[in-house]
Task: structure prediction
Amino acid sequence: MGVDRILKEARAAVEKIVPANIEISAIDFEGPVIVIYTKNMDEFASNADLVKKLAQGLRKRVSIRPDPSTMLKPEEAEEKIRAIIPEEAKIVDIFFEDSTGQVTIEALAPGIVIGKKGVLLNEIKKVSGWAPSVVRAPPMPSKTVSEIRAFLRSTREERKVFLRKVGRKISRQTMDGEDWVRVTALGGYREVGRSAHLLMTRNSKVLIDCGVDVSSSGTGTPYLNVPELMPLDTLDAVVLTHAHLDHSGLIPALYKYGYDGPVYATPPTRDLMSLLQLDYMKVAVADGKKAPYSSAHIKKEIIHTITLNYGETTDIAPDMRMTFHNAGHILGSAVAHFHIGDGVYNVAFTGDIKYEKTWLFNPAVNKFPRVETVVMESTYGGHGDNQPSRHEAAAQLEDILKRTYERGGKILVPVFSVGRSQEVMLVIEERMRNKEIPEMPVYLDGMIWEATAIHTAYPEFLNNSLKNKIFKDNRENPFLSPIFHRIETQDMRETIINDPEPAIVLSTSGMMNGGPVMEYFKGWADDPQNSIIFVGYQAERTIGRKVQGGMKEITFNNRGKQITVEINMEISTIDGFSGHSDRKQLINYIANMEPRPERIILSHGEEKKSLDLASSIYRKFNYETKVPKNLETTRLH
Result:
């Protein structure tokens, strides 16, 4: 069998690399990682290069774990760990995982727990026998983060069985024959919403994204019943580029209908997707619709999620390795790069990208070891889709806020809870702190507060300047400014709506297709003193698109009743806050890519925009370009 052969080869390789005085008690798979158990953890702790040599020799990710017989009892180990770690690390919790031999230390200052060049972690390994892992305690308490961590601790035995199963599936024997690679469009082509791509080789099937079109009056789901995809348990993996529902919204449904494999995502994407999927279910039920899955399927998805940081390469199938790179779109968003076979082919799926440094993130990565095909978004790829800079957007926002305040009005900003909310918060906080706009309360409604707390839990995914501002220079965290107020109840909402004083409300949903934003809109729309500001994409057929387009009267469902609202408030759109690259940035992303790709496939854009961008890229670079229709398959190799 392929698994037995690989484990035998792994043991032989380990015996060549590891000195004879180090005892290896067992070698096993845990997902895509080879786990090596040893009775000499202190030897590994004092030889940092040894793990690197093992990873290079085995060509796989490697984790060194202590043999269970060498570990102190948790109570005794915790006492010694607390004695090693300085008080300024501000430990929040220490918890032990018997099945993996890992102790997780949650602290407000994880760098202090680690110590210079990992010296304290090595000391913990030597003294306790446990393998330490350090996580940051969010400076803003996050219910989502804490519940997911607790849930994973409670299901560790189930997860351990699952990871072993994944490791064996990845290491199965492959079929000989002609190498080929193809991608099938299952959703999100010549449209925005329900993104899904099926990447196939002779030996593997991987689904990249599985979203839902929240603006659709119909099902808005990808084509998941195609013969290539069924049955779902033949899939090797699901790879999720980011948490927005048009990319993640239907993943739990896969577990409802027979999928039992892994979801690969960055750590913040795992947390954010859970938050958004649970909210999607609640909204469906509130609207009298049947939710496509239950919370039990979301829990199963969490147990089956394998997290990867940027730049971390892992096997996900017998002939496929995958690496995530920063996409600059939202927290944890990733460009997924696939290396297929032994140098057979390389393809990158951008997901949604922002090729510009923003208030939150560094620009999307476009440098790869090899890449022949790029599957790229084209949301703002049409002729004339050029956005103002972040600086111009901030100035425009400042102007509208001042103008509305001076006439005693309210400002309503429909936002997505993840990404745009936090950028708008940063701009408002900075301008108020510097007295560039009048001080007034800023109310956060919907999931914005919780999503912001998740941002503070993963500072390593933010841009360098924001990360340093919050966590290194000990300056005030802008997200914790007293100008921000959390709205949690209908009574609080009604108080703000009826308050005569100027205020700013950031509220979900971002396209006005439901959510608390409609309460404020209903209360404020008819008053010309008030303003509504759109800072994100408004899909066709949504109320947001209709209001943005200048309709003077809107009829919509409000708590089961049809109501009509007259619109007299000032309507503004600020494109510079978009988390998507505009036309110029998309072209520059390709122009500056290293190495030069051979083919560009465009998705995630309205048909006219995708075709326009494809034509421009072909004329400018002489690359093969393609804009497939949904259900169309393209052979890459």
